[in-house]
Specification:
It is built from 22 helices and 18 strands. By secondary structure, it is α+β, with helices and mostly antiparallel strands. Strands 1, 2, 3, 4, 5 and 6 form a six-stranded antiparallel β-sheet that branches. It has a five-stranded mixed β-sheet with strand order 12-13-14-17-16. A hairpin with a 2-residue loop joins strand 5 and strand 6. The chain is elongated.
Length: 679
């Protein structure tokens, strides 16, 4: 079963009365970013949305990757949480029929939002100079891991993103996709955990020892920071605390191991961790407790550990759109910066022409302040090569809903790494070609069951003429699988993208760049020539300035009706939406100035009916013939409710014009009758 992508879920949650099947969540409103899109976080197999119901916040986890027996797992986790009442866990509900996206009915996980909780790495950012607070949180995490082991359980993915620190320095663990419980042993491992916290030999192990290595890494990192706060600036990348997967793969050459061994009070513990990296996974506990365990000789490449997160060129828009909802590393050259004021300060770092949907890094209010504090004027970053690791989200501008832009939100400036052109080229060359990547969850899992093992068709029921199925079509993308194909080809730059295309971010035929660009205004000083890490190859064929740029295919969710040719003209449904709005306005104006004659009232009714007809016809062209009057009326009601975020990408301009026209027409009729009676 093909699962919805990030954009599909974002569109759905903006209209909760239609999307959610849970009575509580039907009354919810999603938290929006300053750009008007639903805020989202990623973890494991799911995307997490922050929704509010009557001032009570929930975390709603929607699955975008296939999982292994998630219904049975979360049923067991829910029972475990309720029976043990551990302070470090959050009550959880698995809803097999939770959300409707298009014609699919899919499961979700609903959890209470941890109020006042900050991710561990964000909390450290604010308390790195407070040894007492660091020690208190360290003990809280150690107590939580010990309590789970005492019950024969393990979280399975202890890392900074799954540890939330509250204002009183107590902690909560979230994301239970990979949790081990004795009752779940038969299902096997669901994931392998975050690469920067796990033993190099962890693969499909599934037992109570899953957290031993990760909890030791977290504990040692916090203890080291309590003694030397400078370590945070030296070794934290935004995706770890102090250690990385490369350090565990090659502890003998690791700078962080060498640095921590110089701290007398921690030297013995650091040496134990170093020895544990070289033993089999089953011997980790003995190595961490100081027992002599023989090391195992194995071939291990540091780059193989890092490759868990692929490096993709910022100019590879198709590859980035295909990875929406995934964590990736993006490498490219900043060609322009922009700062605006909208519900705070928003800073954009553009890697091409943002008006055409090229990749951008966006920093909202706090991220913008952190960026200024770290780099000064953001304009100084223009022309710099950078790498950033984060969640790929997408944004569709209201004025141009057909253009979908891949982006990463910059939460902390430390996640932005400034590179030389040579370093950028090497990083891209060491990573596999983006076109050959197939995004899969860690640990290679089995398909996700829907509604207790039923197929998606069985779970959603027959389409028929049911109102809820007709409404669901209003907010579904035409196809979930066409995102990569719907983006700009990556074979060569268009005239509007030449400033961003000359560099290590541009590849030809899926291979890394291997020689500098032709002399001219596209060449940049310091471009790395062919070296031992790459072989010479012909340069990409340039696009002549007089040649027309390749036409961008229509992005998903905004397709044209069958038989309609895209071009400069507006689509047919847009014309009918304009007609609906015009008739609605005329009906309202005539209703306000009408005389007492029966003919005047009938004219108003005629314009009102025309507005309804044009509006329904527009929506039918846009979404198909099954979008009948009832579905159009529901859209009309929700389209005038801004608290559902309908000004964002989920509801296009033409939809609102049609809805407003129908609403004005319906309002004009009673007004006309009332004015006739009064006069």
């Amino acid at each position: 079963m093909k699962l919805p992508a990030l954009l599909d879920y974002q569109q759905a949650v903006q209209v909760p009365t239609i999307a959610f099947l849970d009575d509580t969540l039907r009354r919810s409103a999603p938290r929006l970013t300053p750009l008007g899109s639903p805020a989202v976080a990623s973890g494991g197999f799911a995307l997490t949305f922050d929704v509010t119901v009557d001032r009570r916040r929930y975390a709603v986890r929607c699955f975008h990757k296939q999982g292994n027996r998630l219904q049975e797992r979360y049923a067991g986790v829910a029972a475990f949480v309720r029976s043990t009442q551990l302070d470090c866990l959050v009550d959880v509900d698995y809803l097999p029929r939770g959300i409707r996206v298009g014609e699919q009915v899919l499961p979700i996980v609903r959890m209470l939002w941890v109020e006042g909780g900050s991710r561990l790495n964000d909390w450290i950012d604010d308390h790195v100079g407070d040894p007492g607070a660091l020690e208190q949180v360290r003990r809280s995490i150690l107590a939580a891991a010990t309590a789970l082991r005492r019950h024969g359980a393990a979280h399975g993915d202890l890392q900074h993103g799954n540890i939330l620190v509250k204002s009183d320095n107590s902690i909560k663990l979230v994301d239970y996709d990979g949790m081990y419980l004795p009752a779940l042993h038969q299902y096997g491992a669901a994931e392998q955990g975050h690469r920067n916290y796990q033993h190099p030999e962890r693969s499909n192990q599934y037992d109570p020892s899953l957290d031993l290595f990760a909890s030791y890494v977290v504990d040692l990192s916090l203890a080291a920071l309590a003694h030397d706060a400078q370590l945070w600036k030296e070794f934290n990348s935004g995706e770890n605390l102090l250690f990385s997967a490369t350090d565990f793969a090659e502890p003998g050459t690791s700078p962080v191991f060498a640095r921590l061994e110089r701290l007398p009070m921690l030297a013995e513990r650091v040496q134990r961790l170093r020895r544990a990296c070289g033993v089999d996974f089953n011997a980790v506990q003995a190595a961490l407790t100081g027992t002599a365990v023989p090391s195992v000789s194995r071939r291990r490449a540091a780059t193989a550990a890092v490759a868990a997160v692929p490096a993709i060129a910022a100019t590879e828009r198709a590859a980035l759109l295909a990875r929406q909802g995934d964590e990736v590393t993006v490498v490219g050259e900043i060609v322009a910066t922009r700062t605006i004021q909208r519900r705070g300060t928003i800073t954009f770092l553009n890697f091409g022409d943002y008006r055409r949907g090229d990749f951008a890094v966006v920093a909202f209010d706090r991220g913008s302040r952190d960026l200024v504090q770290a780099f000064g004027d953001p304009n100084l970053l223009q022309g710099s090569w950078i790498s950033i690791t984060g969640l790929i989200t997408v944004f569709s501008k209201q004025s141009n809903p057909r253009t979908v832009t891949p982006q990463i939100e910059l939460r902390r400036a430390r996640a932005l790494r400034v590179l030389s052109a040579g370093e950028a080229a090497r990083l891209l060359a060491e990573s596999a070609a983006p076109s050959q990547r197939t995004p899969t969850p860690a640990g290679g899992t089995n398909p996700l069951p829907v509604a207790g093992g039923m197929s998606s068709r069985a779970a959603s029921g027959p389409v028929g003429n049911r109102l809820d199925d007709r409404l669901s079509q209003l907010y579904s993308s035409p196809a979930f699988g066409g995102r990569a194909a719907n983006a700009r080809p990556v074979g060569g730059p268009t005239p509007g993208h030449q400033a961003a295309s000359a560099g290590p971010g541009r590849t030809t035929g899926g291979q890394p760049p291997s020689r500098p660009p032709s002399p001219g205004r596209h060449a940049r000083p310091g471009w790395p020539g062919p070296g031992p890490w790459q072989s010479p190859a012909p340069p990409a064929r340039p696009v002549h300035p007089t040649h027309p740029a390749p036409q961008r295919p229509t992005p998903p969710g905004t397709g044209w009706p069958a038989g309609a040719a895209p071009g400069n003209a507006a689509p047919p449904h847009s014309h009918k939406a304009n007609a609906a709005l015009t008739c609605g306005i005329l009906a309202l104006l005539l209703g306000l100035v009408t005389e007492a004659s029966f003919v005047d009232v009938m004219i108003v009714c005629g314009f009102a009916l025309a507005a309804l007809r044009f509006g329904i016809s527009s929506l039918s062209l846009r979404y198909g013939s099954q979008a009948g009057f009832a579905a159009a009326f529901e859209l009309m009601l929700v389209s005038v409710r801004p608290q559902h975020g309908c000004h964002a990408a989920g509801v296009a301009k033409g939809q609102r014009r049609a809805a407003i026209g129908m609403a004005l027409g319906m309002i004009a009729v009673p007004i006309a009758f009332l004015m006739a009676v009064v006069r």
